[in-house]
Inverse folding.
């Protein structure tokens, strides 16, 4: 047990000055056994099961934090997709499930719970349709519930009917929460190649292949990578940049591995994955955009940004893969516009357009995230943007997502400030051309050749 | 028949005007069922005739295996004998006489054995790093809480971290 002063001070510096933290310990709870032909009985079971398993989560998270001296920012719960659980009751309005989840999350002391979820990448069950129709009310009448849907996959193609439906759901959710600046849409995300062990909200849920309970850990550290690259300086070549990011990601992931093992031991469950994602916050220095600019673009969104982001995402994954055998989730770099001070600045200065953001999502770990558009954006435009994002994921065999925020009453260039982790959004211009015929056609984009592997 | 949940509906049906229902020890009784039982004076009993109380969460078959296997996951350390309950104490602050004595006295009170110590002065501020081995049975949390009460905002700040974190971050 001997460490050099340099090693010790490096760790202390990362935590104290560079905002290294465990972003979330997320307890996955299977709700398969909560299905019931009676809606009220099913909701009673959902509440009971979540509280039964989740009531110790916050205390365990806090005890690990205090025992190891590691900041653990959030404790969250992810459930099985509610559409599966709700199928047996045949209800058309699934809002009561969201309310049961919300109440359970409050009882457990967690700020968000994910799992108001449905998989429709190939087709709808009656319960899926009910879930889609319930999302606007469910998110407007609850505080903690997050909703996610799977609209496409490399294996199945893009369910364009579901994309169209979801586009309308996003607009309706934003309008249902107009008084809060359309905040409901921030709790709603769609995926291509949805990740079934994602610990980060809004997409957190546990998929069909997961066990009864599982602990997944999300670890973050844009500030640490940023500082490491600042110390490296502009003279080093890109190989040195990649190596620096990789080494830093290794150390960050190791902290996640330690916390994951410990959380699993203390909760008496299994350790699922560490999601090593550079997840920015509005705090100064905790920015992925700053990293891209340190790699060498004048502003995020300038030419070279996609290449810099590709290098970053890949190096984070490589460092993570060496550090843990359980790397999973969405590991890589998140680019949520409103939550990253550097991204907001880039939008304000006209460097980062919606089109460039879309290009960046082809190499980042997720997709279009926390992008604000005017509240009166036509549904075919929203559907077109979602379809584009799904196509990037489908063809590249990667998860992509869209968390879109149509802000009621706002025009391009105006801002909306939600405060806290959600940050400030500048409304972006989706352009004046739409995709009316594509939208009206509906149907399914068939699975690409990449999906036909057997 | 095994019963996973007891909902308020189940309770109404099973009590059928009576004053008790019997469930398995592992059954999860919903909050609504508990409330209903209290309101109507219905006793919820287990097969053994005892009052039902909330069972320990059954985290599932994977969890059972994980709990067996977790202790066998390799720890990042060269020599397993090196793995002891260790803490890393760092202190930063304005220099004045007696700081080292205060810190080491606190460590001595916890029966800690100092493994390594170093101190540097930078522009009137001291930076101290001490690695300490704690005897078996010592609670890390208690030592940490005690140590972090030393000093103060105008004086010096002590931070205590578990040695395992450093092993994870700096060793393969």
């Amino acid at each position: 047990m001997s460490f050099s002063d340099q090693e010790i001070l490096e760790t202390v510096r990362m935590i104290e000055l560079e905002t290294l933290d465990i972003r979330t310990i997320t307890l996955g709870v299977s709700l398969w056994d909560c299905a019931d032909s009676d809606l009220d009985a099913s909701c009673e079971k959902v509440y009971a099961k979540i509280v039964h398993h989740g009531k110790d989560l916050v205390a365990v998270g806090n005890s690990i934090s205090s025992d190891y001296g590691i900041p653990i920012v959030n404790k969250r719960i992810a459930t099985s997709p509610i559409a599966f659980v709700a199928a047996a009751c045949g209800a058309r309005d699934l809002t009561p499930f969201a309310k049961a989840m919300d109440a359970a999350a409050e009882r457990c002391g967690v700020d968000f719970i994910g799992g108001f979820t449905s998989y429709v990448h190939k087709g709808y069950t009656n319960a899926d349709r009910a879930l889609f129709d319930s999302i606007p009310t469910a998110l407007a009448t609850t505080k903690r519930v997050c909703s996610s849907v799977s609209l496409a996959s490399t294996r199945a193609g893009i369910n364009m009917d579901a994309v169209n439906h979801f586009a309308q759901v996003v607009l309706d959710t934003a309008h249902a929460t107009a008084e809060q600046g359309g905040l409901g849409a921030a709790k709603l995300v769609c995926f291509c190649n949805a990740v079934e062990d994602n610990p980060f909200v809004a997409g957190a849920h546990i998929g069909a292949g997961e066990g009864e309970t599982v602990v997944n850990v999300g670890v973050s550290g844009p500030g640490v990578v940023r500082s490491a690259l600042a110390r490296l300086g502009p003279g080093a070549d890109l190989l040195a940049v990649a190596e620096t990011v990789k080494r830093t990601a290794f150390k960050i992931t190791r902290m996640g591995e330690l916390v994951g093992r410990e959380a699993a031991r203390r909760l008496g469950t299994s350790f699922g994955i560490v999601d090593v994602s550079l997840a920015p916050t509005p705090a100064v220095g905790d920015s992925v955009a700053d990293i891209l600019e340190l790699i060498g673009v004048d502003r995020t969104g300038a030419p070279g940004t996609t290449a810099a982001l590709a290098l970053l995402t890949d190096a984070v994954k490589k460092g993570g893969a060496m550090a843990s055998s359980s790397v999973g989730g969405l590991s890589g770099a998140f680019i949520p516009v409103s939550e990253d001070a550097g991204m907001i600045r880039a939008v304000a200065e006209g460097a980062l357009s919606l089109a460039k953001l879309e290009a960046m999502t082809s190499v980042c770990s997720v997709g279009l995230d926390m992008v604000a558009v005017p509240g009166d954006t036509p549904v075919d435009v929203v559907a077109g943007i979602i379809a584009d994002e799904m196509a990037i994921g489908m063809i590249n065999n990667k998860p992509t997502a869209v968390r879109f925020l149509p802000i009621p009453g706002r025009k391009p260039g105006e801002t909306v400030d939600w405060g806290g982790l959600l940050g400030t959004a500048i409304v972006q211009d989706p352009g004046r051309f739409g995709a009316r015929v594509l939208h009206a056609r509906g149907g399914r984009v068939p699975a690409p050749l990449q999906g036909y592997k057997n | 028949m095994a019963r996973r949940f007891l909902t308020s509906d189940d309770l109404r049906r099973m009590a059928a005007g009576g004053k008790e229902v019997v469930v398995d020890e592992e059954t999860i009784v919903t909050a609504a069922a508990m409330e209903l039982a209290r309101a109507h004076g219905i006793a919820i009993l287990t097969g053994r005739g005892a009052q039902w109380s909330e069972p320990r969460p059954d985290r599932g078959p994977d969890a059972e295996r994980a709990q067996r296997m977790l202790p066998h996951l390799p720890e990042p350390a060269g020599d397993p004998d090196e793995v002891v309950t260790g803490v890393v104490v760092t202190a930063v602050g304005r220099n004045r006489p007696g700081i080292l004595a205060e810190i080491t006295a606190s460590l001595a009170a916890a029966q800690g054995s100092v493994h390594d110590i170093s101190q540097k002065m930078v522009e009137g501020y001291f930076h101290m790093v001490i690695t300490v081995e704690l005897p078996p049975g010592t609670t890390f949390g208690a030592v940490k809480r005690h140590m972090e009460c030393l000093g103060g905002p105008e004086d010096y700040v002590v931070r205590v971290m578990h040695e395992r974190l450093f092993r994870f971050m700096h060793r393969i």
